[in-house]
Amino acid sequence: MRRIAGVLLLWLVSVATPLAADQPELTLPVACDLGRTCFIEDYVDTDPSDGQRDHACGIKSRDGHRGTDIALLSFEAMEQGVSVLAAAPGVVAATRDGVQDRAISPDTRDQIEGRECGNAVRIDHGGGWQTLYCHMQNGSIAVKSGQQVQAGDVLGLVGLSGLTNVPHLHLGVLKDGEVVDPFNPGNRDTCGAGGKGLWRDAPGYDRAGLFTAGFSTSVPDLDTVSSGAARMQEATPDQPLVLYAHVFYAKPGDTLTFTAQGPDGEVFATLLDLEAPQAQLFRAFGRRAPETGWPEGAYRGYVVLQRDGRVLAARHADIGVISR
Asked: What CATH number is attached to the domain comprising 249?
């Protein structure tokens, strides 16, 4: 399921005195292994129009997105606990805790009005530079306003609070209150601006990814996948369960892993090779219902896109089996 855009600003009163005028040098703000246990989902949107464009002129962003999203591979990983780390030395300017961890829905959207960033920490690095850490786990905030931190200090845990439906950390970088892309801090209007940006060791970039994943009750076609019409929220016990994925810019040799779990455990697991991918494609995998029917309850699927064993993207999908 495509994650919903988060709102970046946690405008609480700062208690800190600026430390230095130099721009910060950032380290990875999540205690994970990029390409193995986490991946960069989205970048700052550099397109001033209604479209989307990341710093490399790819499409790994969303219209108006104001930060860098580092996503975990599963909800189970979040439940095990993954630390959010200070990306650079500074003083904690503000914190917020107490926002429930739950995937956002139209029914709950109004309940987080003004708290779209979820549980969060804002750090002042001096010289007008600040970093913002959004969507952290409820009750996990480990620092207080006015506390000095060093790069790598634990701020809390990756969570599911605020305007999101997937466990991830949204890292925002601000200079004098304005959003800065840490991969292209000079806002140069070039593709792949080059250099390491604000990073001590710039994370690698690949333009391939997943538009979406979803469950259906039959193998869909690309048109219904693209439009969203293929996505089913409910199925009956006698219907097939089919997990699909919409991929962009894959290369020959890339793989898609499809897994699904239900009330009785594993439903299916398979790996598909993408031998001749195009700019866009979709793949699907599923199972017919057993003779006794699927047990009623919640089912969750994951699709993971990999290249040479390195995770490029992942998506999840949910469906409920109910008797009608």
From this structure: 2.60.40.10
